[in-house]
Design goal:
Layout lengths: L3 H50 L1 H12 L5 H20 L4 E8 L4 E4 L13 H7 L4 E12 L2 E16 L5 E10 L1 H84 L9 H18 L3 E8 L2 H8 L1 H16 L7 E6 L2 E6 L5 H14 L4 E3 L2 E3 L3 E8 L6 H17 L5 E3 L5 H15 L7 E10 L5 E12 L3 E3 L1 H11 L2 H21 L7 E4 L2 H5 L3 H12 L6 E6 H6 L3 H9 L4 E7 L6 H4 L6 E4 L1 H4 L6 H16 L3 E4 L5 H9 L4 E2 L10 H8 L14 H5 L2
């Protein structure tokens, strides 16, 4: 530890000695200067006295010393001898011990010491100063001094050079006078010693007092150092404990981040590569095939009548069936082949380095054979078949989108031929294109034909199950085609740009219905409307949406636009687009969160209001701890960012209870109601406070078990 007493004592001693020396030197110089000044004043006064008394005599001597004559020295000596008694008489009984007079050339023309006559002092600084008009004095000491009245031993004296002026004020000589100050010097020395002793005593006392203070401070510092060391040890212990806790949290977060990154490129339900990753793989396979001049096949697999399973047994059974199908299909393809989930009940497979078409047919036959054995899911034995479309590169195309489209066209041909079969793509597949054109034509006239409608699915508060809003969903009941599923015509509408008109129609109908409900006294807090990438990219969409909201007369904050992660990431400068959209006053929600590939860094910058947990995670509640962990992360993330969390696809009381326990804000799913018409929705949910404590389709005890 730093020894304050030791270093301070040494430093203080040095500083005090230096301070004493400086003060002593200063006082000595001050005393000497004062002594010289006083003596010089007396010498000047005595000079004026002597010169005034003998002005003419001194003037004559000076003039005689400068006159050209044969023997000037003899004349000056004679005059000096005559003047000597008179000068001695004037300075008798005073402290003046010698008087000398010089002419302008520095020659001594008079001195009380007759032996010094004729000496030259023109080189001395004192004479030079006086001849220029200034008085110059100096303190001197002599062991033996020849004074006017005899020799004196060990004396201190002040010698002053004083200018001599004639009647016109011109300097014609210099008068030097010596005054003895031995007594004054001795008195000053005694005073200096007394002051030095007093100062030394004071400084010594100050040093001792400071030393005592520093020693006391040293003791305090030692005590504080001991306490600080104890505190540091305790702090180190706490830091180590917190570090260990943080390492655990970091490990858990990294695991969640890895999981989210995995979800960005994989289907969360089956674990297969998703559409994004599939396209990357197919692009790489095409490049490799081009280099090696080999061929590859793309197999588009669609499960026949899978929608019936979802409609009759629910989405949870449908999801389990998809997982079971995935496990079987994996056993049929090579490890080098790539199997991905395209979306919904569609799978796609890449077979590299195929020898011929027969090799592809063998794989297709194996895949169809997989469906001959029924699937046992949730206690249900389900029989399923598949339709497979096949295209071969480079024969049927050498670009990713072209191959996928051709395989999809071949798959539709397989379905058209009776399902449960495969079909190779051929250029003659024009019937399907014609059918798509027919579907597009019917869809374009659907609005005018009043075939479209908007259904509403409720969103409820996870705490008290009160109605918090609804989601507006588009439905198409064609006079020629019957009920057309959204998965079929929405994709077509996005491809041909009709989604712009359909989206505006849905928004207009949703706002109109919300206003009608308000008139009927039925208050729905917020209505959600889905947006597609085409709408966001359309230059007139923002203006069109603003006009619709303004015309409806409702508060724009009651309209919530739902946008999927993939849509957000695919729109150029999506942050600016969403900010402009948010400026309309509406709220924004990111749909199917966790299934896309958005950056968390980018997400926090988006002007969002709500995050919707995808149904694939909700289906894993009570079954897959990993899905539950992901839901917790998403809910915590939404709360950290100030968002509202909504879980969709809730179909059981256990799922609702779990979501409530982790703090999820709102719930949406079959458990609280399917999408129904506006009239059915109002009849079901209108009541005191716009709240229904449990769905009408459920009994109260069943809901109370949550």
């Amino acid at each position: 530890m730093f020894n304050l007493t030791r270093y301070f004592s040494a430093l203080s001693l040095v500083l005090i000695v230096l301070a004493g020396g400086v003060l002593g030197g200063y006082f000595n110089r001050f005393s000497t200067h004062h002594l010289i000044s006083q003596a010089e004043h007396d010498n000047v006064a005595m000079t004026h006295f002597v010169r005034n008394a003998l002005r003419e005599e001194f003037a004559a001597i000076v003039a005689l010393s400068q006159a050209p004559q044969d023997a000037p020295g003899q004349g000056v000596s004679a005059k000096a001898a005559e003047l000597h008694p008179r000068v001695q008489a004037l300075i008798k009984n005073s402290d003046v011990i010698k008087v000398k007079t010089y002419n302008r050339n520095g020659l001594t023309v008079y001195s009380t010491d007759q032996t010094q006559l004729g000496e030259s002092v023109g080189h001395k600084p004192g004479f030079q100063a006086a001849i220029r008009g200034r008085v110059a004095s100096d303190l001197k000491y002599r062991d033996v001094f020849n004074a006017h009245d005899g020799e004196r031993a060990k004396i201190d004296f002040i010698a002053s050079y004083v200018p001599m002026r004639d009647q016109d004020g011109n300097i014609n000589g210099v008068f030097e006078i010596y005054r003895e100050v031995t007594a004054l010097v001795q008195r000053v020395e005694r005073t200096l010693w007394q002051v030095a002793i007093a100062a030394a005593a004071s400084l010594a006392l100050l040093y001792l007092l400071q030393l005592l203070v520093v020693r006391h401070a040293q003791r305090i510092l030692r005590l504080q150092a001991a306490e600080l060391q104890t505190s540091n040890l305790e702090l180190d212990r706490r830091v180590q404990e917190r570090t260990a806790a943080l390492e655990g949290e970091i490990a858990e977060r990294r695991h969640a981040e890895r999981r989210l990154d995995h979800l960005a490129h994989h289907d969360p339900l089956t674990g297969l590569p998703n559409r994004l990753m599939f396209k990357e793989h197919l692009s790489q396979c095409l490049s490799r095939a081009a280099r090696q001049k080999s061929r590859l096949a793309v197999l588009f697999i669609d499960l026949d009548r899978f929608k019936d399973v979802n409609d009759t047994l629910g989405h949870s059974v449908g999801d389990e069936l998809l997982v079971a199908v995935t496990r079987r299909v994996k056993t049929c393809v090579r490890t080098s082949d790539i199997l991905a989930r395209q979306g919904g009940d569609e799978f796609i497979c890449i077979l590299e380095d195929i020898a011929n078409q027969d090799a592809v047919e063998q794989v297709a036959d194996k895949l169809l054979a997989l469906f001959r054995q029924p699937f046992t899911v949730g206690g249900n034995e389900l029989c399923l078949s598949g339709s497979i479309g096949i295209c071969i590169a480079p024969d049927d195309g050498n670009e990713v989108d072209i191959l996928v489209r051709n395989a999809d066209a071949a798959m539709y041909r397989a379905k058209a031929q009776g399902r449960n079969r495969y079909h190779f793509y051929t250029v003659e597949l024009t019937l399907q294109a014609q059918e798509r054109m027919r579907l597009e034509t019917l869809l374009r006239h659907a609005i005018e034909a009043n075939e479209l409608s908007v259904h509403f699915q409720p969103k409820v508060d996870a705490g008290d199950s009160s109605l918090t809003g609804a989601e507006a969903l588009l439905r198409w009941n064609s006079r020629e085609l019957g009920s057309v599923p959204p998965s079929r015509f929405i994709t077509l509408a996005e491809e041909n740009g009709l989604i712009i008109e359909l989206g505006a129609w849905v928004l207009r109908e949703a706002c109109r219905q919300l206003a009608l409900w308000d008139q009927d006294g039925f208050f729905v807090p917020r209505l959600s409307v889905n947006l597609s990438v085409k709408q966001l990219e359309h230059s007139d969409f923002l203006a069109q949406a603003g006009d619709i909201l303004l015309a409806s007369g409702i508060n724009p904050a009651r309209i919530e636009f739902e946008i999927t992660e993939s849509v957000i990431m695919s729109v150029d400068d999506s942050l600016a687009v969403l900010n402009r959209l948010r400026a309309l006053g509406v709220t924004l929600s990111v749909d199917d969160f966790g299934t896309g590939y958005s950056s968390l860094t980018y997400l926090k910058a988006l002007p969002l209001h709500t995050i919707k947990v995808d149904r694939s995670f909700v289906n894993g509640i009570g079954v897959n701890p990993g899905d539950e962990a992901i839901i917790r992360v998403i809910v915590e993330l939404s709360h950290s960012l100030g968002f509202i969390s909504v879980a969709e696809g809730v179909e059981t009381s256990h799922q609702a209870q779990f979501l409530r326990s982790i703090g999820c804000d709102q719930i949406q799913g079959f458990f609280f109601g399917k999408a129904v018409t506006a009239a059915e929705f109002q009849a079901h949910w209108q009541g005191p406070g716009n709240s229904r404590m449990f769905p009408a389709s459920l009994s109260a005890p069943a809901f109370d078990s949550l």
